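Annual report, structural modelling task.

Input specification for the adenosine-5'-diphosphate complex:
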Amino acid sequence: MTVTKQDIADTLARIPLPDALATEGKNTLADRLEWVATCDAYTSLKFHLPGLEDKNSMQAIAAAARDAIAAKLQDAGTPLQSLTVEFVDKPGAVIHTARFSAGKQQQTPAPNTQRPAPGAQRPTPQSESSGLPGVKFAIAVGAGKGGVGKSTIAVNLAVGLARKGHAVGLMDGDIYGPSLPTMLALHSEEQQVHQGKLQPFFVHGIKAVTIGKLVDPEKPLIWRGPMAHGAFKQLAEQTEWGELDYLIIDLPPGTGDVPLTMAQTLRLTGAVVVCTPQRVAQDDAVRAARMFQQLGIDVLGVVENMSYFIGDDKKEYDIFGRGGAEQMAQRLGLPYLGAVPINMALRANSDTGDASANFDPDTAGGDALPRSLERLVANLESQVALASLGQGTKRPTLKIS
Ligand code: ADP
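The model returned the following structure:
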């Protein structure tokens, strides 16, 4: 049985607030619930409790919520895997976070200020068209060369889709240079395995796995073709994804073994190609787009990253030749998903693993970045809707020449 957001709210409505925090008409935890996301046994909550400043009391309230939700999930036959409880102040800044995972509890200080996500209801996948049980749309993010921001775009697309209420997984398929441990601040987290299945990390509202949590972070990752094939396949197939609307796959740069394995293993909805505006980057992106097409994978669109820079004077500077990737998309007859500016906050938030901060103008250096990311997400949703209309569920026939 699936536990919905409403079930979680109903469960919290049975937990009374301490007298000191209760007010007329607001006397249960549900009355102070700002936001809830739940996907299988992974849940995250935000409470705003005016007057509550003591961290121990917050921890006790989080534990009460955990006990009630764990019992609800247990009844539904999906024992609790992960619960994140955030306490926010009036504007929505996180003041305390309590994390619980199966058999484990952690407290972490407030990581950032986050704008509460819109309360859109997660659509239940109608079909499993990706080739992975429970996963509706699988989308690869590729680039012709490294350093153009492919992982950055993959992370922000995933988080942006989750903020719209979708159930989203993110797989770090960049097995030669995994970035997710840093971009999602997973360094101090432990990889959990349950009944031989990797349990994804639940961060920023998404489920994520990365080869970076399975190998020595300091060792060079040298994979021969068959090993690369095995590593990718295992990450995709041996992860407990649960029900997902979108699985975003961050591919290694270039046109090597991994995309080939991916095409053989999964039925992709399509691929996104990330490119910077310069001519040399476009040439490589064209090769990446052609590779996807040769593998029978639709290109859902091109993203122009590092498109322009907004100076302190608020002027926009076209450092790399803004519009180059858009022109390339036009030339190849591919959809254009949009541009992302060069933005210091984006780089800093990536280094600290705080992708949610990119969606809040206060922590994203203004509203240009959040707006551009939201536009990308909306355009991707439209392209996926179009692609899924035209696609059957047949695995593509590979034509390699
Ligand atoms: P790739 O996956 O293509 O190798 P990354 O996503 O790892 O590239 O990005 C490379 C570096 O560039 C990272 O430090 C990232 O934070 C930074 N970066 C990416 N896009 C932007 C941007 N639009 N503005 C500022 N920094 C960016």
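Residues 135-389 form a domain with the Rossmann fold fold (CATH 3.40.50.300).
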